[in-house]
Amino acid sequence: MNEQLIQKQYQQVVSLLEEKRLNSALFQLESLLYNLDNQLLHKRLEQIQTSYQYMLDYMRQGLKDPDKQKLYRQLLATTWDVADQTRITLLEEVSTHYYYELRRNSNHLPPKHDMASLQKILEGFPDEMAVCQLTPGYQGLDEILKRHEETHQMMFLTTWSNSSWTPEGVVQAQGMLNSETLPTNDLCLFTSAIMLSLMECFDASKINWLLDAIRHTNPQVSQRALVGLIFILHIYATRIILYPELKARISLYGEEPEFRQQLNRVYIQLLRSQETEKIDKKMREEIIPEMMRNVNIMRNMKFGFEETDENDYNPDWEKTFEQSGLGDKIREMNELQMEGADVYMSTFAQLKNYPFFREPHNWFYPFDLHHSSIIHQMGLVSTNSESVLSVILQSGFFCNSDKYSFCFTMAQLPQNQREMMLSQMTPDQQEFMDEQNTAEMKNFAARPDVISNQYIHDLYRFFKLSQRRTEFRNIFQEEIALYRNPILKSMLNAPEYLLAVADFHFRKEHPVEALEIYNILINSKNADTAIFQKAGYCLQKEKRYQEAINAYLKADMMKPDQLWTLRHLATCYRLIKDYNAALEYYHRVEEIQPENHNVLFHTGSCLAELGRFNDALQYFFKLDYLEENCIKAWRGIGWCSFVNGKHEQAMKYYEKILANKPLATDYLNAGHTAWSLGKVVQASELYGKAITESGSRDLFMEMFNKDKNSLIKQGINEEDIPLMLDLIQ
After folding, report:
1. Do 150 and 361 touch, CB atoms closer than 8 A?
2. Which end of the chain, N or C, is surrounded by fewer C-beta atoms within 10 Å?
C-alpha cells in the first residue's frame, strides 16, 4: 500500500467512528490491517469485534446492561486507537516524512537514551556552565554546549516520535515536569515536542501531562502547555468525548475564572495570527514601499540645505510626510503591534534559511544567548549585559525564532554596520537604555499574554516556513471556532467572552463568523443595542437586507433615534426598493442632519423612484447649492427635469456633466433630452458616444430599452425609435 491509500482508508475509519458506525468502522479497519503482520494489533481488533458482538447479542435478547454506553464509548475509543497504531505502523514502511524516519531509527537507539537518562544530563547543564564560566577562556565550553544541545535534540525527537507512552514513560515525563533543576528552556522544548507528538497521534496520557504543565509556576512552560492543549482540543474535538475522565478533568479546569480568561485570550490570539498573511501583504505592498518612497522624498528635500543648522527642521517635511500617507500607515502598524498582531512576519520570513533552522527542534527552542549558534556567531553575551542588543533580545518585541534570525543576520554585518543598525533601531539610545525603560521591557516580555502570543508567532513560522512544513497539519489555515468545540464551549459561553470573539471578527471584516456569534448572544437574551446593530451590519454586508432591517428595527426599538441605526435602515429599505419606508427613515435622519449630503441625495433619489419629481428636484437643488461641482446632484436634476418635461433645464445640467467626467448613462440621458428638444443629429451623436462608453451595443440596448417608456411620455413617437436606433448604427 502507498501512503495516499493508507491515509485514505484510515480517514474512512475515522469518519465512520465519528458517525458512531462502529460495525462498519471495524470492517474497514480489518481491511486496513489485512496487509500488516502485527499480531498484537490483530489480536486487539479481534477482542473489540468479539466484545461488540456480545454487546449486540445482549441488546437483541432484550437484556438490560447498565454499563452499555460506557462499554460502547470504550469500544469506539479502542477502535480509534488501533486505527491510529495501524496507520502509523503501515506508514513506517513507506512514508518519507521525518516523523516515520525517526520511528524507523528508534529501534537502534542505545538504552542510555531513555527519558530519565536524558533528564539527568540536562539537569547537569547549569552547573557545568557555572563552573565553565569561572575558568580562564571558558575551557570546555564547546564540549558542554555540544553535549547539552545533542541531548535536548534527542529528547525532542524521541518524545515527538513516540506515539503512545507506556506507564514507565508517563512516570518519566512527570519527572521532567516536576524537576527543580531541569533548565526551563529544555522543559519548554519538551512541552512543544509533546504537542507535536499529539498532533501525529492521540494519547490521553500526553494530554493529561499538558493539563499538569498548565499548573507549572513558570509562565514560559504553562503558556506553551496552554497553547498546546488548545491545538489538541481543536484537532480532537469529537474524540476526547470518548474519554470521560479526561473530559471531566478539563471541565474542572473550566470552573476556574482565570483559566477561562486565559483560554479566551489565547483563542483570540490564534484568530489574530490568522490575519498574518493580510498584514504581511500590507507590509510588503503598502507600508514598506511607502517607507522607501518617503526616504527618497526626504533625502531629496535635504539637497541645498547642507549649511542649515542641524536642528533646524523644515516644517514642510512633516507636512510632506503626512501627505505621503506614510504617517497613517505607520500609525496603523503601531496599532496592530499594540494589539499583538504579527507585524514582523514579512521582515523575518526571508531570514529562515540559516543552518540553525534545518533542524525541527530549533524552531521550538526558546531564545538563548548561550546557544552555541549564538556564541559562535556573536561571542558570549551576558544576559545581564546593559548593551542595546541584549535589551532588544530580552524584550517582547520579537518571537524566539525571529530573535535567532536577528542575531544570525547581525553577525553577518561588519562591526560598524552592526552598531549603526542598532542605533537606527533605537534613535534615542539614552532614553531607550534608561533603567526604568529596560525594566519595563523585561517585565512586558515576562507577561503570560506576551509569552503565549510570541509562542503562537513561533508556531506560525514553523508551520508556514520550515523546510518540512508540508509534513504537518497547519491549523492556522483552518477555521478555529472554539466556542463550538464540544469540550470548550461551556467554558467560552460567557457573554463577555463571546462578545470579545465576535467583535474581533467584526473588526477584521469577517461578517459570517461575527454574525454567528452575535446570533448566539441574541438567542440567549444577552444582546444590547450595539449587538443588534452589528448583527444588522453583518447581514447587510452579506446582502441579506430584510434580515438586516429586522435587526436594525430591534436596535431602534431598544434605543430610538440613533443616527447610525436610522441611516442603515434607510439604506436597506432603499436597496430592497421599498422607497416609501426608506423615505421615512431618510426624513428622520434629515431632522438630525439637515445638510447631510448623502442623505439629501438618497432622499431625492427615493422621491424620483416614486415619481415625485418636483419634490426630488428640491433635494437635488439643495445638494447642488451645498456642494460645489456635485455631479451626482446634476445627474438628479437632469433626469428629474427631463421626465418632468423641463427639457431645456435638463440639457443645461447634462452639458455641465458632459464637460466633466461623463459615464455612458450620462451620454444616453443627454441623448434622450436632445431628442425631446428636436435635436435629432445631436441626439444620434450622444447615443453613439453612449455605445462607445458602455463598451458594447448590447449593454447600450439594455439601458436604452429601460428608458423607452420615458421617451414616449416626453413626446417621442414610438415608431421613430427603431429609426433612431438604425440611424446611430
Report:
1. no
2. C
